[in-house]
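Both lines are given unchanged directly below:

***
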Amino acid sequence: MAILTSSSRVLQYLIVLKINVFLNSLSLQVVVAMIVGSLLSNTFKYHAKMFIIVLMSFLVLVVPIPLFLFKPRWPLNALIPGIVACAFIRLFGVEYEIRGQEHINVRNGGVVLLNHQSAIDIVMLSRLLREFRNIVPVVKKELFYMLPFGIASYLVGVVFIDRKNTASAKDVMKREAVAITKDHLKLAIFPEGTRHDNDTLLPFKKGSFHVAVDSQSIIQPVIVSKYHFLDHKRKRFGRGRVIIKIMPEIPTKGMTKADVNELTERCQHLMQTEFDALSAEAKQYCHN
């Protein structure tokens, strides 16, 4: 009897010891807190998912920096990090469906227009790289100073512009217009200028259209369905499908500065119409 009592005390001691070790592990505490928080609070789940996705996007791009140095400014440097990012976000219940791949001509440089919704668009861009292979995003210069993320972005070909300095931004885009023709590069530009989650696209800025006309290249609208699974105002991040539709190229050969306004309006109308249709379809696959 005494032996059984002693064994029982030893077992209790070991259990308590293991619990104390578990609770004293900071990493385990964080994991447990995130799991419990996700189960109890949608707001916590929103912040946790956004943080993890942004952190993951940062790490998958920064870790391979030494490899990028073998061929700096090469868009395909981001191919493997992009595959990892897409696989990771799928674990959170977000899937991408690509349509219109037959409209991609890798021999044509040009301007790719996309609607901008959220910080997680970085994962969407990495998914498109697998289709286009020669596409690089144009982003605000401030992101370059987020070291070492900015350095990694530069090494994969990202173009940085200073939105506050119009003359500087124009100079950068003039250089990129040459790259469009010489290197068959496609610049991914968000013509709205800022991200938002409204049902109506913001008025398009004309900079991207001037670049296309200056280089006499193509414009290719790419429409991304509304992220119904993501609600920044209500702090909700659920599961869903993102439908991305690649539209036929719009040639600008023969166009002049006088055609920019009409071209801008034409693309705005086209993208809004497709955005409405894709968003209505994608809504059935989204759950908050």
